[in-house]
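[Amino acid chain]
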Amino acid sequence: MIFGMWDSIFFRLGPIPVDHLVVTQWAVVALLGSIAFFATRNMQMVPRGLQNGFELIITFTYDFFTQVMDEEHIAKKWAPLLSTFFLFIICSNYSGLIPGAAEIGGFQPPTSNWNVTMTLAVITLLSVHYAGFSEHGAHYLGHFISPNPAFLPLNLLEEIAHPLSLTVRLFGNIFGEEMIIAYLLFMAPFLVPTALMGLSVMLGAIQAVVFTLLSASYIAAATSAGH
């Protein structure tokens, strides 16, 4: 079975059909939620163990977004969402590297499906405009006609292009990678796929960083003083 090609319903919750993709998303969310819960259950002034690792991630992402965004209060406000994006995407990308994952019922890497990447992109789009209005109020609408009203169609097209590019870039890379590995498993078991899976570790992290970085840059642009 090639990732992204599951069409059947895995089970039903009453009248609601639940497919393989949703089950895997639940697993990723449960994993991240469990780590966050146990890391913060008994917090100490001097962190250690899981709390220490979790704080390292939070500190790293916060510092990273502070460098991308001009205003520290903007970075502090949006770092939780952007950090969640990064963790969810990288876990989803890496879930496809689990040995035999393609044969596990109820399993499909979420980012190998465009519905998931599009949803993440739409969340980014809504967040960008919410951030813009929060910082500039009605004056934010002025950027749609900047530098002059004749640019309105181009500016609107740009707003559509941003989430579209986020959707296609993440989905295309992950889905294409999974399909290539699946086909090569039939032609050259173990050797070529193993090398590609090693490359997938790097590409999975890069795609998570790129999506998060672009989302942060869009929010930074919407909240900049130029609007």
Summary: The CA atoms of residues 143 and 227 lie 6 Å apart.
